[in-house]
Amino acid sequence: MTAKAYNVAVVGATGAVGNQMIQVLEERSFPVRDIRLLASARSLGKELTFKGKSIPVEELKEDSFTGVDVALFSAGSGVSKKFAPLAVAAGCVVIDNSSAFRMEAHVPLVVPEVNGDAIRGGPGIIANPNCSTIQMVVALKPIHDAAGIRRIVVTTFQAVSGTGKRAVEELRHQVGEVLQGKPVTREVYPHQIAFNCLPHIGAFLDNGYTEEEMKMVHETRKIFSDPHMRVCATTVRVPVYYGHSESLNVETREPLSVEKARELLSRAQGVRVVDDPFQCQYPMPLDAEGKDETLVGRLREDLSVENGLAMWVVADNIRKGAASNAVQIAEIMIERNLL
Ligand code: A2P
Questions:
Q1: Rounded distance from Cα 45 to ligand 1 centre (Å)
Q2: Is the CB of 16 within 6 Å of ligand 1?
Q3: Which of 171, 256, 265, 281 has the fewest CB atoms found within 10 Å of its own CB?
Q4: Whose CA is nearest to atom 3 of ligand 1?
Q5: Which atom of ligand 1 is nearest to the CA of 12?
Q6: Which residues of the chain have pLDDT under 50?
């Protein structure tokens, strides 16, 4: 008997995350019968490789989902809003990396290690959380289970790949311009990103926070099913290509020693503790790049509050923060006979 295989579509296949989705499907030997690579008309004529075979990129159209079992979307909110419902109507499971549906009550928002139970079967949309939220909740899940998190203060240091391929090019280009003493040109960010930090990710809102910061607040509450969890986020774009870093200060309801937290984290799914500061061992984006684990280190007591822990959390934003999380959701659906 041959194992079941699936018709898969990747929407936004030519983008930073879409490309990685194709690679992760291949690496993890996802049971693909047929793969359809979809992007805009601009990409017509391009070919991408899957399992050594060249596959032409097709233009995303209303009828692109006929016969597709599972569609991984990463082409921005506008594309998801228009095409995900069409895919569902065609009988498809959509795993959507955009923010379009994340906060809709009927749409599960899933990080498999944290709330895999929220996954449901049948045609419909499952949302992949924001990259910064994913790595934070993976690291906080064991702490929340053990001691109940009351409040989180988080500052992020986010790689340019989170903005997309053009932003990776912009940083590369600007580094060259600066080193050659040329004037810096920019198209993607409102300021030079090379050798700089921008405390500005997503649009600013009336409350003074950015969209990215408020995504971290709302998504964390939804994933932990705790609408009252207090979260304060500051999100910063830094000149790193791949890998987001986060400084976290966490206040728990019950006391939890640093030693106990370290032990829990060392057994937690999807986490690797890298925490030997005297040997200069701590998580860094260059070490997280290309991996699916969330690295946790610099674990210490937060001396400014009762029941406080401080830590540093790093993950590859394109992999665990996006592509790998989406593929893991599909794998769980197969395991549970939901696909
Ligand atoms: P394309 O390369 O044809 O523009 P990134 O996040 O790296 O910028 O990538 C965005 C992805 O979303 C790309 O694959 C891009 O395709 C795709 N995309 C953007 N707009 C559309 C659209 N209107 N229809 C289909 N795909 C789109």
A1: 14
A2: yes
A3: 281
A4: 40
A5: 14
A6: none
Residue 309: helix, strand or coil by DSSP?
strand
Amino acid present at 299:
L
Q: Tell me the pLDDT tens digit for each residue of 155-197.
A: 999 999 999 999 999 999 999 999 999 999 999 999 999 999 9
| pLDDT, position 2 | 60
* 24 within ligand 1 shell (Cβ under 6 A): no
| Ligand 1 pocket: which of 11, 23, 40 to mutate (most atoms within 8 A of CB) | 40
Q: State whether the beta carbon of 325 lies less than 6 angstroms from ligand 1.
A: no
Decide if 42 is inside a domain: yes
42 C-alpha to ligand 1 centroid (Å)? 9
Residue 1 lies in a domain: no
* Residue 31, SS3 per DSSP: coil
Q: Tell me the two tokens of residue 39.
A: 């992007």
Residues in Cβ contact with 58 at an 8 Å cutoff, skipping those fewer than 6 apart: 36, 37, 38, 39, 44, 64
CA distances from 46 to 13, 19, 37, 318 (A): 11, 13, 10, 22
Other C-beta atoms lying within 10 Å of the C-beta of residue 59: 12
In the chain, which ranges are E strands? 6-11, 32-39, 47-50, 53-56, 58-59, 70-73, 93-96, 124-127, 149-158, 230-237, 244-252, 271-273, 294-301, 308-315
Q: Ligand 1 in contact with 18 (CB < 6 A)?
A: yes
Same domain, 16 and 88: yes
Q: Which residues are catalytic?
A: 131, 244
CATH code for the domain of 92: 3.40.50.720
pTM over 0.85: yes
Q: Say yes or no: CB of residue 120 within 6 Å of ligand 1.
A: no
12 lines ligand 1 (CB under 6 A): yes
Position 3 scores a pLDDT of: 81
Q: Which helix (H) or strand (E) holds 261?
A: helix 258-267
Boundaries of domain holding 278: 133-317
The answer on 146 and 292 residing in a single domain is yes
Q: What distance in Å separates the CA atoms of residue 308 and residue 305, rounded to the nearest whole number?
A: 6
